[in-house]
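Q: For a teaching session next week I want to show students how multiple molecules come together into a single three-dimensional assembly. I've collected the sequence lines for a complex. Could you give me the predicted structure tokens for the whole thing so I can convert them for display?
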Amino acid sequence: MAPSTLASPTPDAKQRQGFLGYLIRRRSYTVLAAAVVMVLFVAAALAAPLLYDWETTTRVALDRALMPLSAAYPLGTDELGRDMVARLIWGARITLVVGVVSVAIAMVVGVVIGALCGYYENWLSSAVMRFMDFMIAFPRTLFAIIIVTAFGSGVVSLILAIGISTVPANVRLFRGPVLALKRRQFTTAAKALGAKDSSILFSHILPNTMSLVIIQGTLSLAEAILIGAGLSFLGLGPQPPTPEWGAMIAASRAHITTHPHVILVPGLALFLVILSFNLVGDALRDYIDPRSRKAL
Amino acid sequence: MFNPFSMTRRTHLKLGLALFASVALPMAAVAEQSFELRIVQGADVDTLDPAVSRSTPSQLVFSNIFSTLVRWKDTKLSELVPDLAVSWTKSDDGLKWTFKLRQDVKFHDGTPFDAEAVKFNIERILDPALGSPNRSLFSGISKVTVIDPQTVQIETKEPSPILLETLADEYSAMNSPTAVKEAGRAYSRKPVGTGPYVLSEWIPGQSVTLSRNPDYYGTPGKAGTMTFRPVPEASARLIELQTGNADIALNIAPESASELREGGSGTLVQAPSSFQIFFELNTTKPPFNDPRVRLAINHAIDRQAIIDKILGGYGKVPEGVFPEGVQGRAQQTAYAYDPDRAKAIFAEAFPGGFKEKVVIWTCAGRYMKDKEVAETVQSYLSAIGLETEFKVWEWATYQKTLYRAEEGGTGKGTNAANMWLLGTGITNADWRLHRKFHSSDASNLTGYDNPKVDELMDAAATEMDYETRMKVYGEVQSIVWNEAPNALSLFDQVQLIGIGPGIKGLEIFGDEIVKLDQVTKED
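A: Of course. Below is the structure for the complete assembly, covering every listed component.
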């Protein structure tokens, strides 16, 4: 479905409308629900400061610790008396920021390096590819610990750790299409017309990989959120009193048998968000016609 | 087909029975004589060298490997009784103590225990090259003389009222001179003492195993082997106990305490503790260089709420720097929860507000609910308008960092933080005050420098009359509580220990050392 024309990036909005329409036609209501969850998640994260101020989210109030769900506290309170709804949506901000920025970094760096390695086939690109293989083999958690030791714990370290460790996979992924595309007629034609290498890469080849970027981005986002929560659970993320879903899960383990809502709220939220991103990403891939991924 | 090894059913049965009996009977006999005692605690052992150790989890382990000249008779610290020394006399001027040593005692490596060994050990801990953090406790000792292999004389610079108590402490344990000389810096991994147990294996981060010393001169230990494992998570320790993987679980979390109480596979043992948990304050830089501010901050937190909600009621609001059970306790009035007063004093001391961030450090898992309490304190400080920065440390790294002397600041330890969570459980009045409040002490991490306190403590150090000495310490306690504290006190800890079915005979001391060598296990 992706046309192999010269420099024609597919318009996003039209594609999205088409995507939603496609979902409705396919009657995949679970994916539609997942898309709704995604939108709600982003909306909640953006709206957090408007609904709850930082004070309410972080101020300890021991007299109302571990309260169950009620009208005043729709999701109860945590072990230090803070409103779970407030902590959930403020935590969504961190989750969203960490996810989006780390994927953005990984995408930009990965696509650029991958495209360059695909376009130029020489000893340098081979060396880079081998280095990427090495990086993939290096355990992510260990890498994250190294980053945190160097830069201190916090959102920046999380983003760096996840972003850098996702680059190698993206490099490998985007090298393939570029390798294939550069052998196509339109590339030879552009070269014959005297176009510079960079112009060919950026105006002709990369736009044809955009759909792959979108799909990979969505799926990467799900993974990044999961890893971010995991690292935060281990204590490598933002420090108290900043709420973060992984850290909230870690702190609530002591009360898992007596007050399960404290662990279920961030746990279910994490599960739903990651699942939604995965479902939507998969559906996107189907929408953009599986055949074309190879034809690209 | 003819099978030379075929057997009739009866022979089969007899053979089986014989095999079973040959395995089971010796096992049953062995089970009576020796069993494995398995203990889980929250932190790993950092060193097994008594002279340099600072940490209770390590002391718990090596107290079984070593003996001291004298020891406490019981957990109430009622009286000092002979151990490696069988009798002692004091000269008329009070400066010379002569000890008669027990005969025919050998270290685990075969070296005989004698007066030379005593001299070696005391001189070792006094040697600045060793870098013992406990050196100042022994600084009153001027000379050790060997009179004969069974008699040793210790001279002090001034009449010392606390010499005997010092010699009963874990740091005064007798190490084998041969082993120390041979191992050098590696001695902390290869301890050799005269105690009821010998170190059999130490896998760092995993376990320490001790096995019974058959040549011990005193009452033999009951367990055949003792295994100590570090399990940092309180809930994981409880699970180890409940699944039968451990016999004793130390420092049970308050929320688990109710689980144990209601039956289940284990019993909860509650014991008073001499541990008080506090935030030490860096007195060398703002905001805590001002004693008014240090006093103010003690009114900023609601301790009762912390004890009720976070510690599940297992704890006490501090009434002075000494909890109940510490020698010479002079009870003070608990600080009232008065955040407005705290805010007002802060405003007075820092007109325009204190703009810098207060750096808060805490450990996780060493003391009961340490991290959660620290988070709560952070919140109370934010409530009175302070900006904070929070950092959680793992215990071993935390200790190292705190005690690593940095340029400027306190000169004794780190200067990077404004406040750090710590606890102390020393039951002896002199050391407890000296370590934290005397300006010359190497363990005085806060840089506390109060000439009046120094004067009082120096006077008490030579006061031979017990009552008078305790009165002076009472005065010190009053000053450091009511006028110029060096810490934000949090709570007096309660010891919560879980023991498996059939376990009996623990002797629990107030400083959280548990004497384990007489513990029995019934099936």
